[in-house]
## 1
Amino acid sequence: MKQQLIAWLMGFVLSTGVAWAGAGEMTIIYSGNTDGELEPCGCSEEGNLGGILRRATTIDKLRRRHPDLFLVSSGGLLASISPQDRLTGEYILKGLAQVSYDALGVQWQDLAYGDEFILHDGLHWVSSNHRHAGVAKERLIRRGGQLLAFFSWLDPDKDPAIAMGEGRPVSVSGDTAELAQSLKAAQASGALTMLATSLPLAQAREQLPLEQVDILVIESAYEEYGEPQKIGNLLVLQPGSRGMRLGHLTLERGTDGRIAAFRHEVIKMPKSVEDAERLLPWYKEYNAKVKETYLVRAAQRRAAESGDSPYAGEEACATCHADEHDIWWDTPHAGAYDKLEDVNKAYDPNCVGCHTVGYDQPGGFIDMDTTPQFAGVQCENCHGAAREHVKSAGSRPVANAHWEPQQMCAQCHVQKHSPTFNFDRYWPRIRHGLAK
Ligand code: HEC
Ligand code: HEC
Ligand code: HEC
Ligand code: HEC
């Protein structure tokens, strides 16, 4: 109540134009790349951090504690690697719109589906050198008697159009003079200035006008936040990627308005952080859309199937390899599809691939109604398609007969989904056959 009153009085003082002194404390919550990850996959405990549901809970809680906090992101919300990423991107934007970011920088990956794609949710995008309607060149945020001016710089050299041989596009300017001008004006008006970019520090220092920047947010590091660095008057922040954590910066401004002192904390968002209840309808809608698209694709694939599959399914192996089959049956591989069902992700094509046999391959897993015999991680995920082997009673080799064991695992036990994978520790837990 008291805080609200103070906030109201501050607002009153500001709106009546009483001179504002630069000094004071500011709380800034910042995030870096989300990279298309609406939620963590949950494949491992270590990697099970972040996601928009937990981010909303964390930020709601922080806002209750610091009603005047500033919430900004350096952008990089979207990915465009799998066909599913577009739908996920749409929902990332919708979800984040409910988290009420004060400003979001634009990175090239955010423009993968066109300039319009990112606009429709009332998100406060900022790009100081990319011209298109609906994206501001800077954003001034006034809160709790403090003013934050947010800028963002899109590296013109990384324009995908250049890579595609289309030369330097006209929509992005490499000229920093205007940015320098705006930064200067913002500082003169009493704002703390913050500039976000996907450039690494060395390049940012070479290319950007940093004299009038108080906080520079550089290229996201992989997953983990970097230590903040103070270089003269400049505070450099490096967020982590994949939306796993948040940065919490508390700073003290001197009477000159510059940063006099700061505290920095990284907030992890593990499973123990509850999902934000207010976003559950959004999440339900997202999952329903994912399922809908999955079923359309499954129907297409059913229609396209010719009838002969190169896969045989694990049951066909049991007759001749009973020992191997018994061992496999007791490993987590056998139940890998059930785990997806447990977390309501059995219709997400970004998950099904590593938890079934031959998903999206001719004759492979389609869905539980059509191909229940290919659910889970089975013999043929590692040994390769084996129908011919079965038909020939073992005289024809399995498809991956010449693969190294490590190569088999590497199809799925990748850093992102199995960060603690180590062949020598994992293989003994599923060991079978004659070898080792
Ligand atoms: C690139 C392959 C791959 C993809 C894609 C993948 N997973 Fe996994 N998943 C794994 C592997 C490997 C493990 C086992 C990790 C370990 O124990 O080291 C696993 C384990 C799991 C587990 C079991 C965790 C436990 O505690 O027992 C769940 C649940 C799961 N994944 C869900 C998902 C979901 C949901 C998605 C999609 C968002 C997904 N997976 C996508 C490879 C994958
Ligand atoms: C009708 C019996 C039979 C069935 C069914 C069968 N196998 Fe075999 N399998 C054999 C024989 C025989 C060998 C050769 C054993 C040897 O040379 O020591 C063999 C060898 C293998 C080997 C060793 C590498 C190789 O290719 O020589 C693997 C791996 C294998 N089978 C996997 C499978 C899988 C997976 C299935 C089920 C999809 C399966 N087998 C079904 C009889 C069978
Ligand atoms: C997670 C991967 C994986 C799964 C799943 C798997 N295997 Fe294997 N299997 C291996 C590896 C690795 C070896 C050892 C091969 C080597 O050392 O060259 C092996 C060995 C074998 C061998 C003996 C080959 C030999 O010469 O020693 C047979 C037979 C076999 N597996 C059959 C099966 C059957 C049947 C299933 C399903 C019930 C199955 N495997 C499931 C990875 C797997
Ligand atoms: C087709 C994808 C795939 C391949 C190939 C694969 N795995 Fe897995 N593995 C998984 C998934 C998915 C899980 C999680 C299963 C679950 O918990 O439900 C898993 C779990 C495991 C586990 C249990 C981990 C735990 O935390 O309990 C071990 C051990 C393991 N895999 C070893 C291996 C080894 C060794 C290889 C290679 C020889 C291999 N896997 C190949 C997908 C795969």
## 2
Amino acid sequence: MRPVTLRILALLFSLAAAFPAFAAGGEAGATGYWKRPVNVGSVMSIESLYPEKCAKCHLSQYEEWKGALHSKSAGPGLLAQLDPKADPQTAGSCYYCHAPLVVQSEVIAGENAPNGSFDEKLKLSGVSCAVCHVRDGGVFGPASLNPGGFKIGVKADHVSLQKEFFEKAEFCAACHQLYEGFDLNGKLLVNTYAEWKESEYGKNGVTCQNCHMPGRRHLFRGIHDPEMVKSGVKIEVERTAQGAHIGAKLRITNSGVGHYFPTYATPLVVIKGFLIDAKGNVLRGTSKEASIGRKVNLDLSKEIFDTRIAPHKSYEFDYVVKRPVKGGMLVFEVMVFPDEFYNRFFKNAVKNHDPAMKKAELEEALKNTSGSGYLLFKKAIPLKDLRAPL
Ligand code: HEC
Ligand code: HEC
Ligand code: HEC
Ligand code: HEC
Ligand code: HEC
């Protein structure tokens, strides 16, 4: 049983036929740059496309990319679900974003024939340098900001062709936006580019690159990085005493995320409020919880809730203290689970001994996604301070 895969696959196929824009990468494909599978041409040798080869002259970009998730996109979570030889269509639908080069695919797209130019190592490099920079034997990049800035003595062994497209949000939309048909409860499953475009950032030309590649650095930090998340949200706590009641409110504002916080259905942000006594023990029955995110069920057929925060909007969490204790405190905690959906998905596959999944990869994926949660915010307020006049 491969519920998610199958549904995405069905959608992809019905879509490629119905919406040629999607097949060509939507708006981004207007230039043809993101036509898939991506052809790198025959001028360069396959080895010269390995990120380690680019690193010889572009070490900083390599190290940043290596520390980011694009370098891990052909990881165990993806590989566990695929059997490219037996089911090339499913694999192809995923490689579309996770490893889109012709040479990254075992099978020739649309045919069941083995691909003679397939390279395993390049496949495992996922969304690597060549995926974004190499087309038809040439290396493409943004207009140079600093033409003389390379170390003297290092000569490019490639011709570089400059494209303004690299500085546009449409460049990222190729994989961070889906189009009509991929929806659930009337909303697209991946809608980052459109969310951005409608926001103040889209209107003022603050691009994905401005926030995710500051100074052209290849950091691509997102929900998995606590500092990145802190840079995009403001968390405030205020007293809410009313009559005899005492309490407090936690407010999370999307103050600097260029799209919904979070944009995908995969993460979940969990807010908790609870009381502790003077010794720090949690008082039973005082815990209250709320979640921010778009929670969907495992086969993507149902949306359970959607509490994501649009740019410049806030989410409020109220806590009323029902039984004040002497010397006690009210504690607020905000936890981020970047892989909540996939963790649930992998757990379910392990539990059901899903025969369609590769066991070793599945266990590794389960382990990776089980440990990725982190504490974003914590504050303890003495109850006596809640009683002070406002
Ligand atoms: C032998 C050293 C060397 C290797 C290997 C190399 N490059 Fe370069 N690259 C350079 C130099 C030098 C420049 C700057 C001069 C120029 O623009 O031609 C450059 C420029 C670039 C640019 C900027 C182009 C622009 O217009 O702003 C990109 C992007 C790029 N390389 C990507 C890559 C990728 C991807 C690889 C691996 C497939 C790679 N390079 C391999 C030396 C190298
Ligand atoms: C997901 C797509 C993506 C991947 C993967 C990627 N790059 Fe880039 N790269 C870009 C974009 C977009 C820019 C331009 C950013 C901008 O102008 O704000 C860029 C810019 C560059 C530049 C020009 C830097 C400058 O200061 O002018 C070089 C060189 C480069 N990349 C090399 C690499 C190398 C080497 C790798 C692999 C280790 C790599 N890139 C991986 C998208 C990518
Ligand atoms: C060829 C497809 C492709 C392109 C183009 C692409 N991405 Fe990605 N991106 C992915 C995939 C696939 C992942 C997930 C990798 C994983 O976790 O396995 C990802 C992950 C990310 C993440 C990390 C999300 C997290 O959960 O923390 C960020 C941030 C990101 N991309 C930003 C960008 C930006 C900005 C651009 C444009 C400069 C871009 N991407 C272009 C495919 C792409
Ligand atoms: C439209 C682009 C796109 C397509 C098509 C796509 N993915 Fe992804 N995938 C992403 C992005 C972006 C992320 C990171 C954000 C997230 O976690 O949702 C991701 C994350 C993942 C992850 C979690 C991170 C990891 O690497 O373990 C898995 C597993 C995954 N995708 C599997 C698949 C499978 C299987 C398919 C094919 C049925 C597929 N994806 C098709 C873009 C895509
Ligand atoms: C104004 C800054 C800003 C802009 C513009 C921006 N982002 Fe983000 N992005 C963030 C911050 C901060 C986070 C971390 C919080 C979060 O996950 O929502 C993030 C998170 C992400 C993630 C992680 C997944 C998730 O569920 O949140 C992806 C993928 C991503 N951005 C892609 C993009 C793409 C693609 C664009 C352009 C269409 C873009 N971003 C524009 C600031 C920005």
